[in-house]
Design brief:
Length: about 140
């Protein structure tokens, strides 16, 4: 009887995970996502519109419980382009924009944060100066 319970528990779990292992929509979605990205870039579109089109397609095709992150989608596109070099040889030059320079991003974020802090400090100082009153009897 206990063995029967275990089988009843295991069968639904297998039914959930096996189709995902046998059929790999992730690979197909990544492949066609790379095709969308590369074709749009080669056609003269900017990076952002090409990336959004490819990423939305990959997200839509994957399905399932978990969403595809932008990093995962970019990785899938890069894997496809590298794996199928002959087919996507024209697209290699656009791959660097999928993973931008992280040091440059961090530096820009730091500069932006310092600029905002300066603005807040200047606003506070100007507010303090405007609140000062003149007392004609203080010597």
């Amino acid at each position: 009887m206990k063995g029967n319970r275990k089988i009843k528990f295991i069968i639904p779990i297998i039914a959930i995970f096996v189709p995902g292992l046998l059929f790999t929509p992730k690979t197909i979605a990544g492949s066609f996502g790379a095709e969308i990205f590369c074709t749009m870039r080669d056609g003269g579109n900017d990076h952002e519109s090409s990336w959004q089109a490819a990423y939305s397609y990959i997200k839509k095709q994957k399905g399932g419980f978990f969403k595809t992150s932008p990093k995962q989608a970019a990785g899938q596109i890069i894997e496809t382009v590298v794996r199928e070099r002959d087919e996507f040889s024209y697209c290699v030059e656009y791959l660097d924009q999928l993973h931008p320079d992280r040091k440059l991003q961090l530096e820009n974020n730091r500069k932006e944060k310092k600029r905002k802090q300066k603005e807040l400090l200047q606003e506070k100082e100007s507010k303090d100066d405007s609140e000062e009153t003149f007392d004609r009897y203080s010597y």
